[in-house]
Amino acid sequence: MNIGTTGIIFNEFTQILLIQRDDTRTWAPPGGALEAGELPDEGVAREVREETGLIVYPVRLVGLYFSPDKPDGSLLFSFRCIQRGGEIETSEESPQVGWFKTRPFPNRVLGFHRQRIQDAFHHRGGPPIWYARKRGWRQRVAWFLLRHIVYRYKDWQLARNGRPPYQPPPNWETGAFAVIRNEQGQVLWVKRTDRDVWNLPGGGALKNEAPWETAVRETHEETGLQITPIHLSGVYLYDAQNHLTFTFTADITGGSLTPGPEAAEFAYFTPGEEPPNSVQQHIERVQDAIAPGDVTRFKKQPGPELVIGNQ
To answer: Does the predicted TM-score (pTM) go above 0.85?
Structure first.
């Protein structure tokens, strides 16, 4: 999966910071692909500084946007950011940078950028929004032209100047898990069939599958329950790997507990009182999910090997 970030920055006059892209010559919020071994909140701060010269702090995640593009799909993290320093500067990727009114937008702001800016402007805290949207035919044609004409021309220019060609962004693997609580506040855990350990319901993503879709599918396959994700409580990066794991809090909307091929047993445990053979990474994810506030936490964890807690 391709993963990217974008930073939405407003000033005290409610103007939006935009860059002119060097490839399409359209205007857009700063952002770009996530680098290997980088958390999304780190990536957005780096991209904004590289493209605008500004030092920003990502205040909160406001949106997740998934496009089911072949072969693995693409996912964009959209953050509200505040300026902490720096001065506006241009770059090779952003020949023009400036503050603009949002009413009206500059003429050459694409529709999906307008939508993300509006989503960020109206987001007042709490869980981020998320949805999947297929590219329209105009976007598919534009992407084809970029890949096969514009980027090839840019590579020719780089080679002509003795510089290495453009390197595509790394491919990422993703997974998703669900934190499901009962009326007593206890969390549902699954005992695996392949090892004598307990973990949260969830698992790895299929091709072209959004993270929230992974959480729903995996939970149903393992437990028989139908769930609705409510909040993205955490995003976790496995050390030294291009693997992001998403943890959603979720409500049960149907089904009944039925063991699947990977689940031998189910139990609800009070947070902090999990059995000794519980996966340590998942214990931490539960603590993040039940912590006060509807923020999304970004952390690095050891993995994906199972680290057993309370040993």
So the answer is: yes
